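Posting for a labmate who doesn't have an account.
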Amino acid sequence: MAAKTYRSGTTVSVNIALPSGRSRHISFNALSNGTSVYTTSDEAVQKGLESHARYGRLFTLVSAANTPKPKAPKQAAGNGADASAKKVIKVPVSDWGTAKDYVADRFGVSRSALKSHAQIVAAAARNGVEFTGLE
């Protein structure tokens, strides 16, 4: 599953038409420099964004990368001491929007519960994930 990141020079919210005929409202995540980004691995949303009338002018595709799926920790057989140790999976991400989408899509955490960087990191840690590439 390839995650794609779109960037705009301003804070953007657009309505897109999905291949199914339905529509969806997409809000880009605002950055401190006045731009905004949106990352998704949903192919229907990607097609809707790329067929939007303002694609290429209002917002553009800036990266496409395969998002690794986290591996489930193996259950250790034996004395049980290893079973309590949680294996941490390191996931490289380029920005906080990507990290937020990863946690929301992979673990079903509500995006409204991921408003701050600390909440994103805590939700990832609860699920055995540590993000690399963020400051």
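Reply:
Got it, the structure tokens are right above this. Residues 96-107 form the longest helix (12 residues).
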